[in-house]
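[audit] Reproducing an earlier prediction to check determinism. Same input, same settings, fresh worker. If the tokens differ from the archived copy the diff job will pick it up downstream; this log only records the rerun itself.
[audit] input (141 residues):
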Amino acid sequence: MSGSLNKVMLIGNLGDEVKMHHFDGGGCIGRFPIATNESYTNKTTGEKVSNTEWHNVVVRNKAAEVCEKYLKKGDKIYVEGKIKTRKWQSDDGIQRYSTEIHVSEFNFLSTKNDLTTNSPTIDVKEIDSENQNSDSDDLPF
């Protein structure tokens, strides 16, 4: 097989509120951490072991605004996207790397009453294309 695949699917809980960053051109991104948990029993000791992994999640534009409006710390969410590693320089001049999940679809799994519902999956591409189409005033009719 000559191709490759970069796809991530996570179900977890928000570790913090959505942090927004707005750009001069009108776009924005939202960032938030998601915690995923794994539990198993160690076969040799019989001890129950729990591990938590933290994932840095990035959503863009209208999807970021939707997440900021409806999500809060502790909410359960399904996200789908791809892994990207970002290189940046810290204040002390050291090169740093951050691995992030860039979201293409998401689904809220918590409601106001913390009940799981069958809410629809939100496709980020559809939100962005709807937003771009609504700004178009050059229709021929």
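[audit] rerun output stored. Observation attached for the diff report: The domain at 10-134 is CATH 2.40.50.140 (OB fold (Dihydrolipoamide Acetyltransferase, E2P)).
[audit] end
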